[in-house]
What we know:
The chain has 227 residues and is of the alpha/beta class. It has a single domain (4-225), classed as TIM Barrel, CATH 3.20.20. It contains 8 helices and 8 strands, in the order ββαβαβαβαβαβαβαα. It has helices at residues 33-39, 60-70, 92-109, 121-131, 146-154, 171-175, 195-206, 210-225; strands spanning 4-9, 18-25, 45-49, 76-85, 113-118, 137-139, 158-161, 184-186. It has an 8-stranded parallel beta sheet, sandwiched between helices. Zinc ion (ZN) binds at residues 8, 10, 23, 81, 189-190.
Amino acid sequence: MPLFIDIHTHQLTVEENGLRIHNLAVNQPGFCADEYFRIYHTERFFSAGIHPWFLQRELVGKGMEILENLLENQQILMVGECGLDRIVSIDFEFQKEVFIRQILLAEKLQKPLIIHCVRAFPELIAIKKRLNVKVPMIVHGFNNNLQICEQLVKNQFYISLGAALLNPGSNASKAVCTVPLNQLFLETDDKNCTISSIFAVTSEYLGLSIEDLQEAIAQNFRKITEI
Length: 227
Ligand SMILES: [Zn+2]
């Protein structure tokens, strides 16, 4: 049965034929890993990371410890979302430091990274080059201009597009045809939409059947999770 793979979501529901990677922000206030695993026991997949929005210097050590323990769980497929955000007021150098710690952890564990990046694409690309990161890096919720998209593609990032595709005038809608199919993912993130609707609109943009699109995304998914 072909699946609608949702590479990054904060939604709690499950869709028919859906496979979701549910995001856990271990440093989000009130986060409790046990609670998630109680609700989401079997057959669920997760990503887990320290989100730049909730960074607190005194909690990073503990957060990394929780993260490292959590990542031993086979259901947690990816590290993140983690990354860089120029809009929040948290010190940017500190954000970089915590991001790099998570990249090194992902490399050690051989798990892909799911990345939050706001107005920091040159730095993101520079970090990938400088550290010579080998695990797949997925930029989630991409909704930026074609030039940045091209740079990311050229530097072997995967691009995940989401609800912005439902708006024909968005940057994501302009970028979707320029992302090579073998570097593309789709997601719902925290938006109130279905992953099947994102697949439907993407299949129209690309002139592909839903089944072919599902298969292409599934192939990318197999590739990144078998590293
Ligand atoms: Zn998210």
